[in-house]
Structures are given as structure tokens and as C-alpha cells.
Amino acid sequence: MSRVMVVAGKEVRQLIKSRNVMLSAFIFVVVFGIFTGPAVLSGTGEPEQVMDTLGFYLVLTMGVFMGYLFTAQVFLREKQAGVIETLLCAPLSLRELWLGKVLGVTIPGALLTYFSAILIMNAGSVFTGYTLIPSLPVLFHIIVVVPAFIAAASGLMGFAQFILGMRENQILNFVIIFGIIFLISFTREVIGPAFSVTWAVVGAAFGLALLILLVTAFLTRFLSRERIVTTLPE
User: Fold this and answer.
1) 81 pLDDT more than 70
2) Per-residue pLDDT at 99 exceeds 80
3) Where are the domains positioned within the chain?
4) Burial 126-165 (b: 16+ CB within 10 A, else e)
5) Which of 50, 63, 116, 206 is paired with 150 by a 20 to 30 Å CA distance?
6) What angle do CA 182, 143, 29 make, to 5 degrees?
7) What is the pTM of this model?
8) Measured between alpha carbons, how far is 88 from 92 in angstroms, rounded to an integer?
9) Class of residue 176 by CB neighbours under 10 A (exposed 0-12, middle 13-18, buried 19+)
10) How much is the average pLDDT of 5-21?
């Protein structure tokens, strides 16, 4: 596990040094976090219920998008630069390397998502005139389930980036990330504004994230160093 954390620490430091990427992520979080205030006022239902809906869907969507943005830096860019060849020579199993990179994406992605959730709550409170705090199931969802989804999305995209060529990667990752976001949005529209976030709903979402993560972790057993090297750009 210590070797996994070494990889995760390296990836976090590299992301922090990528100022353009971090600045883009920060601006995205701030803009969407602040401009959700009017949604609290204009949404159908009580402000508390609308805040729960925002906390469940919007924060999850932003978290998954953070995973998409950072995964491109952690997995794909290293293949483009050829740095992955050096990492493949390290005394790490491919599963440890994959897991370390997933953690390296999840940590900053989760922190920025927490910040977005705070902005959403503050913006909603300012626009309504009184303090709005999500319910306990939604708070658990933000703190625990959203990072699990970030890890699941980044893990799935990272696995694909390991085994596929550069062009296939760009297409598939686009399909994966926007497929997940579309599924979230479609589910919200089907259920409707009267939907109430309960512990059962949060538990189901958590179970889905863990299932995706565990299945992808199982699939890493089929990775090989030779396969990764053959997908590098010439």
C-alpha cells in the first residue's frame, strides 16, 4: 500500500504543478457553484428539497467531470510524453500503478468537489436569505459517494487509456464521461423534481460506484506491460 501512496503523491504533485489544468478546474467549480443560487429560488418545491437535489446531482456531475479532467493529465499525458515507460520499469504491479494513479486523481478531485458543494450551499443561502444545509443522506453522498464515483470514473477511463491507442482513448473517454453525465441527467429528468434523496437512494449510488471500481480493478489483471508499450505514440 505504501507504494500505491507514493504513486498517488507523485500524481497529486504533478497535478498541482499543472497550473492551467488546476486553474480551469477551479474556474469551473466557482462558476457552477455560485450560479446555482438562482436555481434554488426558481426550482419547484421547498428550497431545502431543491438544495438536496443540487447536492445530489450537480455535485456528483462536477465530481465526475473533475475525474475526467484530471485523468487526462495523469494517464493520457504520460503516454503522450513517453513517461509511462519509466514507470513501467519501477518495482510496481500494474494494478498498484493503476490504483495509485486513481487515488492521485480522486484526492484533488474530491477536494475541489467539496469546495463546490460549499459554494452551492452559500450561494443558495444568500439568495434565499436563510441558511440552507443538505440533509444527512445528501451530506454523506457528497463526502463519501461522490469521491467513490470520481475514483470509479477515473479508474475506468484510466484502464481504457492503458490498453488503447491514443485516438481510441480520446473517443472512448469522451463516451464514458459524457455517458455517465447523461445518465445522471436522464435519471434526474425521469424521476422528476418531487424526487426525495433518501438513505436507500444514496446507498444504491454508493453500491454502483463500488461495483464499477471493483470490476475495473478485476480487469487490471489482464493488463500487460507489453500491451501498454505497443499503444504508445511513435
Assistant:
1) no
2) yes
3) 2-230
4) ebbeeebebbebbebbbeebbbbbbbbbbbbbbbbbbbbe
5) 50
6) 55
7) 0.87
8) 8
9) middle
10) 91
* Alpha carbons 85 and 92: distance in angstroms, whole number: 13
Residue tagged 440533509 (cell numbers): 135
Report angle CA 57, 62, 67 to the nearest 5 degrees. Answer: 125
> Residue 151 — very low, low, confident or very high, per pLDDT cuts 50/70/90?
very high
30's grid cell: 466557482
Q: Specify the 3-state DSSP secondary structure of 170.
A: helix
Query: In this structure, what is the dihedral angle of CA atoms 195, 197, 203, 205, given to the nearest 10 degrees?
Result: 60
Q: How far apart are CA 3 and CA 93, in angstroms?
A: 10
Q: Measured between alpha carbons, how far is 187 from 192 in angstroms, rounded to an integer?
A: 8
Segments in 72-192 forming alpha helices (H): 77-81, 84-88, 94-128, 136-140, 146-163, 166-191
